[in-house]
Design a protein that fits this description.
There is one protein chain. By secondary structure, the protein is an alpha/beta fold. Helix content is 49%, strand content 11%. The strands form nine sheets. Strands 1, 2, 3, 6, 7, 8, 9, 10, 11 and 12 form a ten-stranded mixed β-sheet that branches. A seven-stranded parallel β-sheet has the order 15-20-14-21-22-13-23. A hairpin with a 2-residue loop joins β16 and β17. α16 runs antiparallel to α32 and α19 runs antiparallel to α28. The chain is elongated and about 225 Å long. The two termini are 85 Å apart.
Length: 1642
C-alpha cells in the first residue's frame, strides 16, 4: 500500500520536528566554559621548558605573500606538554642524617631537625643538638641551600607533572568517548552576568583541535584539526538584544579564514568590533586574564582556553537542513525504510520465504553477489534482502563478524557502482573497517574517525586522480567481463567439486548394489575382510555393474585351455603369422638352398657377351632354346628336295613360286571337285591327239556360241571346220554333243584337261627337278597326287618364317644377341647349315649358362621375397624371428624346425581363439584379470581356477567399489575446494576492483575532476600547515571539499562526525549502513535520510541508549504533542534505538558465527542472551594465554557503591604482572567496571601512574563501562564487580534490570575478551549473592566455564561408536593426545588430536551416527569450520574395517605434515600444569607489585638510581625490611626472576637539558615495569615454554632435562644454546623419553 506523497512528507516532517525539539532539550547551549567537561587555561600553565605554547600561532597577512612569507613562521602544534623528570634530591651527608626529621625529600615541606641521643665513653645516653656539633652544622647549612634550590625547581616540575597527568587522563577519556566528545580551543572570552542570574563565561571564537600523544617521549601535542575556526553562534543567538545581522557578519568574517583564536592583530580587532554589537556598552578588555563583566557591561577578553565539549552542536543544523529539504524532496531519493516505519508503506518480508538461509550457499558464493572476502549464507541473505526490499536488519551478537560482513558488503556495492555511507554511534566499531576492505578498494574509502583524517583523504584523492589519469572505463569494463566469465567458470568448478565432495561423503553411507543385491558399506568391508585369503584371486579392477562374465564351467575351460598353450604359443598366436600356403615347406627350402649352392659352384658369367639385359626367367630361356632346337632338328634330316624347299622358304621371291604351285594344285583340285558331278553324268570325251590348250580354246568358243544361240547348227559347223574337227572326236555319254549341257560338260572336261596338263608341267620343273616326287604319266588325277605333297611343301617352305624365326625371336626376346652367335659359325655353309651349326654347336652352353644365372638370381629373389614377407610381420621375437633368421642364414635345419613349429601353431589356433573368446568376455569387465590369465602369472597359470569364480567375482566387486569410494579422496577434494575458493575470492576481488573503478571513473564529472586536482595541489602547498598562506589555502581547500567528498564513494564515520562533514539535504548515498545500531538513538534517522537503501546492524541484546538525565515529563509532553498519528510513538524516548525502530518492520538476519572470543568466554553470553544460538568458531590452538577464564576474589575490600579501591589495586597490579609475562607479549588489555565508570577511571589512573606510557599505548589500555566497550575488543579483559557486602545477609538480587539494562551490560562486558577474561570480585558468592543474580552467574561461569554447557548437554551424553573407539585407541597407542567429541559451539567433531600447539579434526565416516539425511548439514558444518581455519582428515569405516593400518596412514601423514607430534604421558602433565603455572606466576608477581606500592606510600625519595633500580629509603630499618622482602620474593619466583619496584613516573629524574633535546624512550630504560628493563638470564625451562616445547625434567633426581623430538628441533635448540643452555641430541633417547629420539641438558 503506497500513500499520498504529501502524507509521507508530512509524517517525516513531524518526526524530524520532534527530533529537533528533542535535541534542544538534550543539548542546551552551554554558556559557561567552566561547566564544560574539562578545561585548560593557557594563562594558568606553569612556566617550564616542558610546556610550549605557540603564543603567536600564525601571521595572517592579506594579499599574496612571497615565498619567504609562505615559509613556516610558527609551529605545527598549539600547545605541547612533555612529561617532566623529577630532579634528584641532594643527599644529606651521613654525618647529619640522624638529626633530620622525615619529609626532608618532600619539596613541599620545610626541613626540620630533632635532638638525638648519643652514648659517651661509659655508655651513657647524652641528648645532643645539631648546633652542638659545629662541623655537622656547617655541613647541614651547605646541604640545606642545595636542597632548597632543588625544592623550588621540583615544585614547578610537580605542577607540570600535574598538568601532564590531567592531560593524560583527558587523553584516556577521549579514547573511551571519542565519538561523544571533542576538544576545542577557544578565545575571545565573553563574560556577562545576565539579569536571569545566569553568567555567560565562554569563548566566542572556537577552533577544534586534536590531542596527539607520543608515548616514547612522552609528550602531548594539541594540534589544529582540519576544521576551520567557527563562531559560537548558538551562544550569541541565545543572548538577548544582540543584532542578528551582527552575528551573520561575524560568521562571514570568520568563515573567510581571516580570524584565528591564537592570531594577534586581526583577531583582536575582530573582538574589539564585536563587543559593542552584543550591547552598546560591550567592551573589549586587554590583557591575558579572562575578563569579568557586569550586568550591563558584557566584556570580551583574550585568554585562550582548551576545553572538552560534547559533540552535539551539529545535530540541530542537520535536522534543520532536512526540514528545509523535505517540502521539495523527490520521494525517490527517500529510503523506503522511512515511510515503512511510519506505517505508510507495507512491503513486509515473507518470513517463510526469506527467513531461512538453507537455500543459500553456506560460504556466501553466488553468481550475482560479489564478496571478495570469506563469507557465509547470512551475508548472502543480507544482500538478497536489500536488493529485494531496500532495507535489511542484521542482528550481530558479539564477535560475529559484523565488521567483516560490512567490508564484504562494501565490495559488493562498489562493484555495482554505488556510494556507501557507514556510520555508527561510536567510532570503535568502525576503527578497523577500512582495513578490512580489500586493499585495491581502500582508496575509494575514507574513514573519518579522529580529528585529522587529512592523510587518509589525501591518499584517497591521490589514488582517484591517478586512476582518472591512467585508467580507461571501457577497458576496465571489458576486463571485468572477462573476469566475470572466468568467475562463473570457477563457481561452476567449485560447485562440481562440492558435488564431488558430497558424492565422496555420500558413498560412505549409500549401499553397494551388485546384481540386484544390496550391501551396506561396513557389511561389505567385513565380508571383504572375511574372504581376503580365499576369494581375492581376481585382481582389480572389475566392473561394478556387471555380473561375472563367465560361468564356473567356462572358467574351468579357460584355465584348461590357458594351461595347454605355452606362453610362446600365445605370444606367437597373438601376432600375425605367415600363412603356411605362402611359405616354402622345409623340403622346398632345402632344395632351393641346395640349388643355390650348386649354381654358386658354376661360372655363371659364361656367354654373358651374347646377352642383353633382360628380366626373363630361366624357364623362358630354356623353353625358347628347346623350341628353337626342336625346330632345327625338324629340318636337319629331311630329303634334299624338302631341304631345298626349306632354304627357298628363307627367300621371299622363292617362296612365291612355291605358293603359286600350291595355288595351281589347289585350283585344279577345286575345279575337278566342282565339276565332278557334271563330268560323271555326261562322261565327256575329248580328242587325244590335239594339245590341251587348242582343245580347250575351241571347246570354249563352241560353248560360248551354244550358250548364246542355244544350239550349234550345221552351217556353223561348216563355217568353222575346226569346231567340226574337234567335235568329231568328242562325245558325251558316247554320243555327239547336242544340247548346251553337253557342251558345258565338254567345256569342263577341256578346262580340267588343260589345268592338269599345266600342273604336271609345273610340278615337273619345280619339284621333280629338285629330286622331288615324279608324277606318273598314267596318273589321271595329278592334282590329287600333288595335293598329298602340299602340306610337307608348305611345312618346310614356311619353316623359316613360321617355326625358326619365332623360336629364334623368343630367345632374342630373352636378350640373346643372335648376330653374335652367327658370327661364331663358318660362313661357307649354306644358310640352313649355318643356323643348324649355331644352334646345335654354339648356342647350348651359352643358353645353359644364362639360364643358370637367371635361375640363381630367381632363387636369391625368392629367398629375399620370403625374407621380406617375414620382415613385414613382427620379427622382434617368436616364430617369425626364427623363420627370418633361418632364411637369412640359409639354415635348412633351423628353417625346418621353425616351419614345423609354425605348423604346430596353426593346429593350436583353434584353442587359442577359444581361449581368447573367453578372455575377451573377462577383459571387457576385468581387464587385469584377463591380463594375468593371458600371461599365466601366479595362480592364473594353473590348469584349474583358484576357487569359485562367482564368489571371487562378488568379493572383487565389493572390494573394488570400496576402493573406488576410498579413492574419492575427501582431503584432496577439500584442498581443491580451498584452492578454488581462494582463487575465486582473488578473481572476485579483481572483478570488484575493475567494476568499482570503472564505475568510479564514469561517476566523476568535470566539476569533481577540477575539485579533486585543485584540492590535491592546494594541500601540497599547505604542507605541514605552518606557512603564512596556510589559513587561506586551507580555506580554499575547504571550499573544494564538498565536491571532493562527492567523488569518494565510501565514507566511514560516526554519526557525530557525519553531521560535521555532510549536509543531509545535498549529500546522498546509495546505501547507508548503520553499525552498532542498538546503541544509536533516533538521531540516526539523519543518516538514514541520506540513503536510498538501508542496512541496520546491531543487537538488541547489547547496550542501548541510556537516556541518562532525560527530562521524562518534558519528553513525554513532546511525544504527545508532536508525534500524533506516528505508529509506536510511545517508544520514541531517549532509550529507543534505531535498531528497536527497525525491528518494528524488519525480520532480522542473524549472524551466528562467532569469531572473537574463545568458546569458554563467549559461552556465558551465549547462554545468557542468545539461547545457545551463537556458534563459537575461534580456533584456540594458537592462543598462548591460558586459562581463558579466571575468577579472582579480593579479600577485605570495601566500596562506596561506585569504587572499590582494593579491587582496583588488584586489577592494576595484575595487568602490570601480565605485561611481564612472555605469554602476554603484544596482548592488549581492557578493564570494564560493572558498576558505573568511576571504578574504571580509578584503575585507569593507576595504570597511567605505574605503566610506561609507551606500553600503555601499545597495549591499547582502555578502562570504562560496557557502553564504552561496545563495538570494541581486547585480548585480555578484566571485569571489576565493584560491589561489596558489609551487611548481614545477601545483597539485593541483580537480575536483568529495567529494559534488560543489567543483562545487556553483562553481555557486552563478558564478550569483549578475545583470549582471557578475568572476573575480579570482592564478594563471597555463596553468602553474598542469591540464585539468579547476574553477578553470581558470571562468577560461577568464571569458576567453571563449561558448567552451563554440561547442563545443557545432559541429554547429549558423549557416546562413541565402536568405530571411533578403535580409531581413538590406535591414536592413543601411538602416543597422541586425543580429545573425543570435541565441541565447537553447536558443532561437534568426532575427535581432535592436539600437539605442538596445533589441532587436527579427525572424523569417522560410515558409523551409525552419520546418516544420509544429515549429510548436507555435515558438509556445511565442515565448510564453515574450514573457513575458520580448522583442518580435517576423514577415515572411512569401509576402508578401516578392511585394513585398519592402511586406513590410518593418511592420518599419520597429516600429523607429520602439520608437525603434530606424539605427547608422552609425563608431557601431558606438564602441558596441563603450564596454564596453572602462568596464572600462579601472574598472581604472585601482582602480589609483589602491590606490596611494593604499599611500601611506596611511605616517604620515598628516588635518588640517582643505582644498578638494578633499587629504592633507597632514609630509614635503615625500612631499607632492611625492603631488602628482606625482595629476597623472599626472589625465592618464590621461578627462573630467578627479579620483582622490581614500581616507582611513580612523576619521580623519574631528568636533566633539564634533556627535556626538549632528548625526548627518547631511553629515559625509561631504568623503569622496572616496562619490557626494556634489564633482567636476569631466563631459565632453560622458561625458554622451552616460550617456544611451546614440552619437556621432562629429571634433574631433581640426578637425571637430565629432556625434550622429546628429532632433528626438526635443531633451530630451536640453537636459539636456546645462544642463552647458554646447550642441548645434546641422541637418536636412542633415554628412559625418560621411552627411548624415543630426544635432546638432553644437564
Amino acid at each position: 500500500m503506497i500513500m499520498d506523497p504529501n502524507d509521507i512528507r508530512n509524517k517525516l516532517t513531524q518526526i524530524f520536528q520532534f527530533l529537533q525539539a528533542l535535541d534542544q532539550i538534550k543539548n542546551p547551549v552551554e554558556k559557561d566554559v567552566q561547566k564544560q567537561l574539562w578545561n585548560l587555561w593557557f594563562v594558568k600553565l606553569p612556566d617550564h621548558d616542558c610546556i610550549d605554547i605557540a603564543s603567536t600561532f600564525r601571521g595572517l597577512e592579506n594579499g599574496n605573500p612571497s615565498e619567504e612569507e609562505a615559509a613556516p613562521v610558527g609551529k605545527d602544534y598549539i600547545l605541547r606538554i612533555i612529561r617532566p623528570q623529577s630532579l634528584s634530591v641532594p643527599q644529606p651527608p651521613e654525618e647529619i642524617r640522624e638529626w633530620l626529621d622525615p619529609g626532608w625529600a618532600n619539596c613541599n615541606k620545610a626541613v626540620t631537625i630533632h635532638q638525638i641521643t648519643v652514648l659517651d665513653e661509659e655508655g651513657n645516653e647524652i641528648p645532643t643538638n645539631l648546633s652542638d656539633n659545629e662541623a655537622a652544622l656547617k655541613l647541614y647549612n651547605k646541604w640545606l641551600i642545595e636542597r632548597d634550590e632543588w625544592a623550588e625547581k621540583q615544585k614547578v616540575i610537580n605542577q607540570v607533572q600535574g598538568v601532564f597527568e590531567s592531560v593524560y587522563a583527558l587523553y584516556s577519556r577521549i579514547q573511551r568517548e571519542s565519538e561523544q566528545v571533542e576538544l576545542v580551543l577557544g578565545d575571545g572570552i565573553l563574560n556577562w552576568p545576565l539579569p536571569n542570574g545566569v553568567t555567560v563565561n565562554h569563548p566566542l571564537l572556537l577552533q577544534r583541535v586534536d590531542l596527539v600523544f607520543d608515548p616514547i617521549t612522552p609528550e602531548f601535542r594539541f594540534v589544529e584539526s582540519d576544521k576551520s575556526p567557527e563562531l559560537y553562534s548558538a551562544l550569541l543567538r541565545s543572548l538577548p538584544e544582540i543584532n542578528p545581522k551582527a552575528i551573520s557578519d561575524s560568521l562571514e568574517l570568520v568563515n573567510r579564514g581571516a580570524i584565528h583564536p591564537l592570531e594577534e592583530d586581526n583577531t583582536t580587532n575582530f573582538f574589539r568590533s564585536l563587543a559593542p554589537q552584543i550591547t552598546s556598552k560591550g567592551e573589549f578588555v586587554e590583557g591575558d586574564e579572562p575578563p569579568l563583566g557586569e550586568e550591563e557591561v558584557p566584556r570580551i577578553g583574550r585568554s585562550p582556553v582548551i576545553y572538552l565539549r560534547r559533540r552535539n552542536l551539529g545535530f540541530g543544523v542537520a535536522i534543520e537542513s532536512i526540514l528545509d529539504d523535505l517540502p521539495n524532496a523527490d520521494l525517490k531519493d527517500i529510503p523506503s525504510f522511512l515511510p515503512r516505519v511510519l506505517g505508510l508503506e507495507v512491503n513486509s518480508v515473507n518470513s517463510e520465504e526469506d527467513s531461512s538461509t538453507l537455500t543459500l550457499d553456506p560460504n556466501g558464493q553466488d553468481e550475482e553477489v560479489l564478496f571478495s572476502k570469506e563469507a557465509n549464507a547470512e551475508q548472502l541473505q543480507i544482500v538478497k534482502y536489500i536488493h529485494k526490499y531496500g532495507s535489511v536488519l542484521v542482528q550481530g551478537p558479539p564477535g560475529t563478524g559484523k565488521t567483516h560482513t560490512i567490508a564484504n558488503l562494501v565490495g559488493h556495492f562498489l562493484a555495482q557502482g554505488k556510494s556507501v555511507l557507514i556510520t555508527s554511534h561510536t567510532a570503535k566499531a568502525l576503527q578497523v573497517l577500512r582495513d578490512k576492505v580489500v586493499e585495491p578498494l581502500q582508496p575509494l574509502c575514507v574513514s573519518v574517525l579522529s580529528g585529522d583524517n587529512r592523510a587518509e583523504l589525501e591518499n584517497s584523492i591521490n589514488n582517484i586522480t591517478e586512476r582518472l589519469a591512467d585508467s580507461n572505463a571501457d577497458l576496465l569494463e571489458q576486463e571485468a567481463k572477462q573476469l566475470e566469465a572466468h568467475r562463473l567458470k570457477l563457481l561452476a568448478n567449485l560447485q562440481q567439486l562440492r558435488n564431488d565432495l558430497k558424492i565422496a561423503r555420500f558413498s560412505e553411507y549409500s549401499p553397494i548394489v551388485l546384481n540386484g543385491v544390496e550391501y551396506k558399506p561396513i557389511d561389505a568391508a567385513r565380508l571383504v575382510a572375511d574372504g581376503a585369503n580365499r576369494d581375492n584371486w581376481i585382481p582389480p579392477p572389475v566392473s561394478k555393474d556387471e555380473p561375472c562374465p563367465i560361468s564356473e564351467n567356462e572358467c574351468i575351460e579357460l584355465y584348461r585351455l590357458n594351461a595347454s598353450l605355452t606362453i610362446d604359443d600365445e605370444n606367437n598366436l597373438s601376432r600375425q603369422l605367415p600363412s603356411l600356403d605362402k611359405m616354402l615347406d622345409s623340403k622346398e627350402f632345402s632344395k632351393l638352398i641346395q640349388q643355390k649352392a650348386e649354381y654358386e659352384s658354376l661360372d655363371l658369367t659364361f656367354g654373358e657377351p651374347f646377352w642383353l639385359p633382360s628380366t626373363v626367367s630361366p624357364s623362358q630361356i630354356r623353353d625358347s632354346f628347346k623350341g628353337l632346337t626342336e625346330t632345327v632338328q625338324s629340318v636337319s634330316d629331311i630329303p634334299d628336295w624338302l631341304r631345298s624347299i626349306t632354304i627357298q622358304g628363307m627367300i621371299d621371291s622363292e617362296k612365291d613360286l612355291w605358293y603359286r604351285l600350291q595355288q595351281i594344285v589347289q585350283n585344279t583340285h577345286e575345279f575337278s571337285s566342282k565339276n565332278r558331278e557334271l563330268l560323271l553324268e555326261y562322261e565327256p570325251q575329248l580328242p587325244i591327239d590335239n594339245s590341251p590348250e587348242k582343245i580347250q580354246k575351241i571347246i570354249d568358243e563352241i560353248h560360248y556360241y551354244v550358250s548364246i544361240k542355244g544350239k550349234l547348227g550345221l552351217i556353223k559347223l561348216l563355217l568353222n571346220p575346226k569346231w567340226k574337227s574337234i567335235l568329231k572326236n568328242c562325245s558325251v555319254n558316247g554320243y555327239s554333243p547336242s544340247i548346251p549341257k553337253h557342251y558345258e560338260a565338254l567345256k569342263a572336261a577341256a578346262d580340267l584337261q588343260l589345268m592338269r596338263y599345266k600342273l604336271v608341267q609345273r610340278w615337273k620343273h619345280q619339284v621333280t627337278a629338285i629330286n622331288g616326287p615324279i608324277l606318273e604319266s598314267n596318273d589321271t588325277t595329278p592334282e590329287v597326287t600333288c595335293l598329298k605333297y602340299l602340306d610337307r611343301i608348305n611345312k618346310y617352305l614356311g619353316w623359316y618364317s613360321n617355326q625358326f624365326l619365332p623360336a629364334l625371336q623368343s630367345l632374342i626376346d630373352c636378350g640373346l644377341c643372335w648376330d653374335k652367335i652367327l658370327n661364331q659359325v663358318d660362313a661357307a655353309n649354306d644358310q640352313l647349315d649355318l643356323y643348324i651349326l649355331a644352334i646345335t654347336d654354339i648356342l647350348p652352353p651359352i643358353i645353359e649358362s644364362k639360364a643358370n644365372y637367371i635361375d640363381y638370381q630367381q632363387i636369391n629373389e625368392q629367398l629375399a621375397t620370403l625374407e621380406h614377407s617375414l620382415r613385414e610381420l613382427n620379427t622382434s621375437d617368436g616364430i617369425c624371428k626364427d623363420l627370418l633368421e633361418a632364411v637369412k642364414n640359409e639354415d635348412v635345419d633351423a628353417y625346418t624346425q621353425a616351419y614345423t613349429y609354425l605348423r604346430h601353431l596353426s593346429e593350436q589356433a583353434v584353442n587359442y581363439h577359444r581361449r581368447n573368446e573367453l578372455l575377451e568376455k573377462v577383459k571387457r569387465v576385468a581387464p587385469t584379470w584377463a591380463d594375468l590369465v593371458s600371461n599365466k602369472r601366479d595362480v592364473h597359470g594353473n590348469d584349474t581356477p583358484p576357487g569359485s569364480v562367482l564368489n571371487a567375482w562378488v568379493w572383487r566387486q565389493l572390494n573394488d567399489e570400496l576402493d573406488r569410494r576410498a579413492s574419492l579422496n575427501v582431503t584432496d577434494i577439500q584442498n581443491n575446494i580451498k584452492t578454488t575458493s581462494d582463487y575465486l575470492r582473488l578473481t572476485t576481488g579483481q572483478l570488484i576492483e575493475k567494476r568499482s573503478w570503472a564505475s568510479q571513473i564514469r561517476r566523476i564529472n568535470d566539476k569533481q575532476r577540477l575539485a579533486l586536482h585543485g584540492w590535491k595541489m592546494i594541500v601540497k602547498k599547505i604542507g605541514k600547515g605552518t606557512g603564512a598562506r596556510a589559513p587561506k589555502l586551507k580555506a580554499e581547500a575547504r571550499k573544494l571539499m564538498p565536491e571532493c567528498q562527492s567523488a569518494v564513494p565510501v565514507w566511514i564515520m560516526p554519526l557525530a562526525r557525519l553531521i560535521d562533514n555532510f549536509n543531509p539535504s545535498t549529500n546522498k548515498f546509495d546505501v547507508v549502513i548503520i553499525d552498532e545500531a542498538s546503541q544509536a538513538d533516533l538521531m540516526s534517522l539523519i543518516a538514514i535520510y541520506m540513503g536510498k537503501q538501508i542496512v541496520i546492524v546491531g543487537d538488541d541484546e547489547q547496550v542501548s541508549p541510556l537516556g541518562v538525565g532525560q527530562k521524562v515529563a518534558e519528553l513525554q509532553s513532546l511525544i504527545e504533542t508532536m508525534l500524533q498519528g506516528i505508529p509506536n510513538r510511545i517508544l520514541y524516548d531517549s532509550t529507543f534505538s534505531i535498531y528497536d525502530l527497525a525491528m518494528t518492520i524488519l525480520q532480522p538476519v542473524c549472524l551466528r558465527e562467532h569469531f572473537r572470543c574463545v568458546p569458554e568466554i563467549i559461552n556465558f553470553s551465549n547462554r545468557l542472551s542468545y539461547d545457545w544460538k551463537i556458534r563459537p568458531l575461534r580456533d584456540t590452538s594458537s592462543v598462548k594465554i591460558k586459562p581463558h577464564l579466571v575468577d579472582h576474589r579480593v579479600e577485605g575490600a570495601s566500596s562506596n557503591g561506585k569504587t572499590n579501591k582494593e579491587e582496583a589495586t588488584v586489577i592494576a597490579s595484575l595487568i602490570l604482572a601480565c605485561c611481564r609475562e612472555p605469554a602476554y607479549e603484544n596482548a592488549t588489555f581492557g578493564v570494564i567496571s560493572l558498576v558505573g565508570e568511576e571504578q574504571a577511571l580509578l584503575i585507569d589512573s593507576m595504570l597511567r601512574k605505574y605503566l610506561n606510557p609507551h606500553e600503555y599505548t601499545e597495549r591499547k589500555i582502555q578502562c570504562g563501562n560496557s557502553a564504552h566497550f561496545q563495538g570494541d575488543e581486547r585480548d585480555v579483559v578484566f571485569l571489576s564487580m565493584v560491589d561489596t557486602n558489609d551487611k548481614e545477609g545477601p545483597l539485593p538480587i541483580k537480575r536483568e534490570g529495567a529494559l534488560g539494562m543489567f543483562k545487556k551490560r553483562f553481555n557486552v562486558a563478558a564478550s569483549r575478551a578475545r583470549d582471557q577474561l578475568w572476573v575480579v570480585y570482592s564478594l563471597n558468592p555463596e553468602t553474598d549473592l542469591q540464585e539468579g543474580d547476574l553477578r553470581l552467574q558470571l562468577i560461577q561461569h568464571a569458576k567453571d566455564p563449561n558448567a552451563f554447557a554440561r547442563e545443557r548437554e545432559r541429554v547429549l551424553e558423549r557416546t562413541e561408536s565402536d568405530f571411533e573407539q578403535q580409531v581413538a585407541g590406535i591414536l592413543m597407542d601411538a602416543g597422541y593426545k586425543v580429545i573425543p567429541q570435541w565441541k565447537v559451539g553447536s558443532f561437534r567433531i568426532d575427535m581432535v588430536v592436539e600437539g605442538n600447539g596445533k589441532r587436527l579434526a579427525v572424523e569417522c565416516d560410515g558409523d551409525k551416527w552419520h546418516t544420509l539425511d544429515n549429510l548436507q548439514d555435515d558438509l556445511n558444518r565442515q565448510a564453515i569450520l574450514e573457513r575458520l581455519g580448522w583442518s580435517f582428515v576423514r577415515i572411512r569405516g569401509s576402508q578401516f574395517y578392511r585394513d585398519p593400518q592402511q586406513a590410518m596412514i593418511p592420518v599419520f601423514e597429516r600429523f607429520k605434515s602439520m608437525d603434530i607430534a606424539p605427547v608422552l604421558d609425563s608431557n601431558l602433565d606438564i602441558i596441563k600444569n603450564q596454564d596453572n603455572d602462568l596464572l600462579e606466576r601472574v598472581k604472585r608477581n601482582a602480589a609483589e607489585i602491590r606490596a611494593k606500592w604499599e611500601e611506596d606510600t611511605e616517604e620515598i625519595t628516588y635518588n640517582n638510581p643505582p644498578p638494578h633500580n633499587k629504592w633507597t629509603r632514609q630509614s635503615k630499618v625500612t631499607k632492611a625490611k625492603s631488602i628482606k622482602k625482595n629476597e623472599a620474593a626472589q625465592s618464590e619466583v621461578s627462573r630467578n626472576e627479579t620483582i622490581s619496584s614500581m616507582p611513580q613516573l612523576s619521580e623519574l629524574p631528568r636533566k633539564k637539558a634533556d627535556v626538549i633535546k632528548e625526548p627518547a624512550a631511553s629515559a625509561y630504560k631504568a623503569m622496572p615495569n616496562i619490557r626494556t628493563n634489564s633482567r636476569s638470564k631466563p631459565s632453560v625451562t622458561q625458554l622451552l615454554r616460550d617456544k611451546g616445547i614440552a619437556f621432562i625434567d629429571k634433574r631433581d633426581k640426578g637425571g637430565a632435562l629432556w625434550v622429546v623430538g628429532g632433528k626438526e628441533l635443531t633451530t630451536s635448540m640453537e636459539d636456546i644454546a645462544a642463552h647458554g643452555y646447550k642441548f645434546l641430541f641422541t637418536a636412542k633417547g633415554g628412559r625418560a623419553t621411552k627411548h624415543k629420539p630426544g635432546w638432553y641438558y644437564k
